Amino acid sequence: MIEYVQSGVHNALWFIVAIAIMVAFHEFGHFWVARRFGVKVLRFSVGFSFGVFKPLWRWRGRDGVEYQIGSIPLGGYVKLLDEREGPVAEADLPRAFNRQPVGVRIAVFAAGPVFNFILAIVFFWLMLMVGVPGLKPVLAEPAAGTAAAAAGLHEGERIVSLNGRAIDSFDALRTDLIKNVFTRQPTGLVVQGQDGTRRPVTLDLAKVRSDPQYLFDDLGLDVYQPPIEPVLAAITPGSPADQAGLKAGDRAIALDGVPLKSFQEFSRGVSGKAGQVIKLDVQRGGQLLHISVIPLLVTDHGVSIARIGASAKLMAKDDKLWQDLQIKQQYGPVEAMPLALQATWDTAVTVVEFVGHMFVGDISTKNISGPINTAQVVGLSASIGLWAFLKIIAIVSLNLGIVNLLPVPLLDGGQILYGLVELVKGSPLSERAQAFGQQIGLTLLVLLMGLAFYNDLARLIG
Questions:
Q1: pLDDT digits 0-9 by tens, 286-316
Q2: Which of 198, 212, 238, 405 is spaced 20 to 30 A from 432 at the CA atom?
Q3: Which residue of the set 27, 141, 157, 353 is catalytic?
């Protein structure tokens, strides 16, 4: 219980830090562009405050703007001088937002999302200079029935390129494959075998589902792991393994008559047999034992898999086999910039395609995450290292910018849409039409946030 509370506090603190950075930069975009066009800014707020939730800090700058940090760290706003929100002094009328040309108003609304994109570029750039650890794109043995197995890929082979683009890490391989699954583009791989020979391979993505819940299972591309001895290092009390009489130190020799060379083979043999009796040949000291055990279906990070409650001895990080698989991609400031731009573009395209596939039903709305899940991911990234924290801020900032550009009233994209309609028809939409749009927008946002919170809670309970 104490560990759970500590983890929750850790995640919440890092989530607040991340949100503060992204929201502050987003609102600074609105603030900076408005000031450049001579619009008077009344207040700049990071976080919200209303009712009993008083501002944590409030001060007035020499520029006359009221700056504040709200007590609710979910968003922020820039309040501009506007006749629609109260009386404006005669001398300030030229600086009122509602009196600005429609092009200026569109630019002010667009500035927030644009600054989120700039923030993503900066953080990807910083990440690449800090250095990103990873694994070489060496494959584990694909499961039967997957796209990788159908293509004839095998354990120990390394992916050299994908559609002519060099692949340096397993993370880059997964990223490129996700894009190809979304677009259904033909995927040509160049594969290098353990003997150094290279061969072309065509990966058929026609039957690979777009939903992240199934995508990687359908692909069958997993990173190769150096073989671990099939020794049961620890047995969970009360687990099927414990009840069957297995002991720590037992060496699994065979599973259902099939000889085992590694713990990975043992784990794969168990994973698909929930509720079925499996027969293990186990060596304990000088004895050869025959033990039957029934795996249970467990859920780990949303994935259901059969387990018996036996774990392997962890391989040391300095083991030569692991060292041979590890890489670190680190670049200088000049070299990192085009790579940061490419990473930003690739991520943005993937997010847009993800949203598009969700609208047409290819991807379940269960993949929508709210603040609870986001806090968990941010907290985990902070625990992994600086590079991971920088990466998650870049990705979430991109998501924030893209979502804000959706043509939904109350969001920046909805206000930009109003401006474009005004440009076309030569006059603003009626107040009644705008009020109706705001009601629709509010309803959509409440439904979206409700769904996001529901999914977060379902993941926690599950």
A1: 889 999 999 887 765 445 678 888 888 765 4
A2: 405
A3: 27
